[in-house]
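Async update (no meeting this week)

Hi team, since we skipped the sync, here's where things stand on the single-chain job. The sequence we agreed to prioritize is pasted below, unchanged from the tracker. I ran it this morning and attached the output directly underneath so nobody has to dig for it. Comments welcome in thread, and please keep replies under the output.
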Amino acid sequence: MTISTKKKIAVVVLTTVALSLGTVGVANASQAKPKSEAAKAKHEANHQVREALVVSIIGIDAATIKSRLKAGETLGAIAGAKKSALITALVAEATKNIDAAVTAGKMSSAKATTLKAGVTAHVTAEVDAVRGAKAPGMGKGGPRHGMGKNH
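Output:
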């Protein structure tokens, strides 16, 4: 039993395509993982920066702040007289991150302008919110670290 030349060509073409798709899929999967790990590392680094910022302004260690947040206090209440300075610093940090996104080409300047217009109100609401361990920069899975639905 012999296979016709057309059938042989079809089998070779289909096999080549299947192997190519498999290789592309493997290449994409291997490339996606480092991006995911890099994104997680960047997210964690940003979280640590915010946490250090909150701790330095309020003047209380992170563990105490987290404990008080879990007990139902707001970050604003914990900050007390330093609440205004905390909001100013968090707004500056958010603005810096928005500007960096524009510089990196990840955000349009129009969107940045829109986000910056609401950043003070957003940060103030986060600082005044009762969230358990989810206040800005404090606690795992905590705040919305940016301005928008992706953050």
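Quick observations from my side:
Confidence is low (pLDDT under 50) at residues 10-32, 140-151.
The radius of gyration is 25 Å.
Reply here if anything looks off.
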